[in-house]
């Protein structure tokens, strides 16, 4: 029976990859520093982006011109969105063309759709405030979908470690004794 337990432990050591344990993940990440894609995820909070769009729509509905609204919203925006909105506000105040003024916003991934809406509004005369409010709704819906997908992924990913914990125990405590008992009966009974 001890031999079977040792075989199960050896099989578990072969099946579990080394170097990806919790301590390696924690300390390895600290030593290597944050990766660029991790920093992008930190700055790209979908709820903050939706709030930025809502504030922009409120300012525009309140009667502020696009430049003044961008300047006001830049104070509450986060990360690179704040800098891009401030630059756009300054360019609009100086009298730049809409395409040139909204270029910094277009270069910022989390709010680039705002630049597209501003360009469309400048060309067609469509309501910029309504378009920005729709952007906020779409951003919230995307954040909700992303959170639901992450929760579903977590449910699937947890089954792997649980399987690695329970499968060896099931084999050692459930299957091996049955096979040993049957083998004893078959070999002891002289069938083979």
How do the helices and strands line up, and which of them pair or pack?
Elements: H1 2-15, H2 22-32, H3 36-43, H4 46-61, H5 66-74, H6 79-94, H7 98-101, H8 103-106, H9 112-124, H10 128-157, H11 159-188
Helix pairs in contact: 1-11, 4-5, 4-10, 5-6, 9-10
InterPro entries: T2SS_GspF_dom (IPR018076)
Main location: membrane
Organism: Rhodococcus sovatensis
Give structural notes.
The protein has 192 residues and is an all-alpha fold. 81% of the residues lie in helices and 0% in strands. It has 11 helices and no strands. α4 (46-61) runs antiparallel to α10. The longest helix is centred in the last third of the chain and has 30 residues, at 128-157. The chain is rod-shaped and about 100 Å long. Mean pLDDT is 80; it is low at 29-43. The chain crosses the membrane at residues 166-187. It is found in: Cell membrane. InterPro entries: T2SS_GspF_dom. Residues 54-172 form the Type II secretion system protein GspF domain. Its main location: membrane.
Features:
11 helices; 0% strand; 192 residues; 81% helix; mainly alpha
Short note summarizing the structure:
This protein is mostly helical.
Basic shape = rod-shaped
The low-pLDDT segments are 29-43
Strand content: under 5%
Give helix and strand order, one letter per element, not per position. Answer: HHHHHHHHHHH
Mean pLDDT value: 80
| Euclidean distance between termini CA atoms | 23 Å
The major pleated sheet works out as:
none
Give the helix/strand class: mainly alpha
**Share of helix among residues?**
over 70%
Q: Count of DSSP helices?
A: 11
Give me the count of strands: 0
What value does the Rg take, in angstroms?
30 Å
Membrane topology: Multi-pass membrane protein
Keywords: Cell membrane, Membrane, Transmembrane, Transmembrane helix
Pfam families: T2SSF (PF00482)
Domain Type II secretion system protein GspF: 54-172
